[in-house]
Give the backbone structure.
Amino acid sequence: MGQMKAQGAGRKARGARGREGAENPSHPPLRPAPRAMRLRPLRPAPCAVRLRHSDVVVIGAGPAGLAAAVQLERQGIRTVVLEKDRPGGQIATANLVENYLGLFGLPGADVARLFVRHAMNAGVRIVRAEARRVAGRGPFTVHTTKGMWRSRAVVVATGAVPRKLGGDGGDVQYDTADLEVFRGKDVIVLGSGDAAFDRALRIRPVATSVRVICRGAPSALPLLVSRCIRAGIAATVGAGEPAVKLVGGRFEVRTRKGTFRAERLLASIGKLPAPPGLPLSLERLAPALPDGRTTVTGLYLVGDMVSGRGRYLSIATGMGIAAARAIGEWFNRGKRVGVGGSGPWR
Ligand SMILES: Cc1cc2nc3c(=O)[nH]c(=O)nc-3n(C[C@H](O)[C@H](O)[C@H](O)COP(=O)(O)OP(=O)(O)OC[C@H]3O[C@@H](n4cnc5c(N)ncnc54)[C@H](O)[C@@H]3O)c2cc1C
């Protein structure tokens, strides 16, 4: 059967060549190219082929990005949100959220779920993809792990990543997303801010023991510090710069207040902005409060990535909404004076 097919194919090929030769006798008969020269079928480049369009691309489905997207949808602006991980952002790992009006103290995971549900109900489209680079100065091209998006405006809401501990040599934890890591273990938390004490409280019910080590005085809310004390969490303050090493599979933390050992070490020692590649450096983009507009028209940076020490849900969502409002006004201004522009966002 296979042979018959092969013969048939050969006849067809010869026939085609014959016809070609008859129409153009001067054309030399086509010979198959030597093996080495034969073209291989092109493989699609990893992230170059698919180009999609949206009025606005929001990068990051944390509180800032979702708030921006909900407001954009309400304004009738076509929006897509790109999320590399789980929608909801870092609030999902908070022990208890008590300062977001109307929520009356909810576990962070519930707050994240509410935010995502709200966005979905508003018709926000969330696509699982990691943005690698934002190119252009409007329209923008967002290069992602799953193709490219072209848009007139981009809202970057990628939050901040934990500052890493230098030279620890071990498996240091930086968040409490997976509580099982801490179950039945002695845990040391390094850090003095709200997040360090909030994380200690979240780990406490599953861990054997928890100690927070602060370089100086705690900078966390006294409310959180006293809750930790009541929950039986030890605190060492004014410990100076800790020296961390692994000894026999356990972390050893040397401080000027003594040496402490634990099976798990969680570092909560600050955050750094985590933008994808941008057309200019953060300094040159100079994002401005409250709407995160930058020196590049149409490019907005919002939320924890740019809010410095004001890393709060309400600031992140407020910036997202402010950016969406600014984009809406800008798009409408164009319409009123008849500047439709060209392309799919017209
Ligand atoms: C332990 C803890 C407790 C907290 N408790 C409180 C509290 O009680 N009250 C309060 O007001 N605030 C609290 N916060 C702060 C609050 O969580 C942040 O202010 C808020 O989540 C910031 O929102 P964001 O959208 O700017 O960033 P994030 O929440 O960090 O969201 C950014 C999103 O972008 C995604 N992303 C990043 N890079 C890319 C990329 N290249 N492509 C696609 N997606 C990307 C991330 O996966 C993430 O989902 C707490 C924070 C922590 C860590």
About this structure: The radius of gyration is 28 Å.
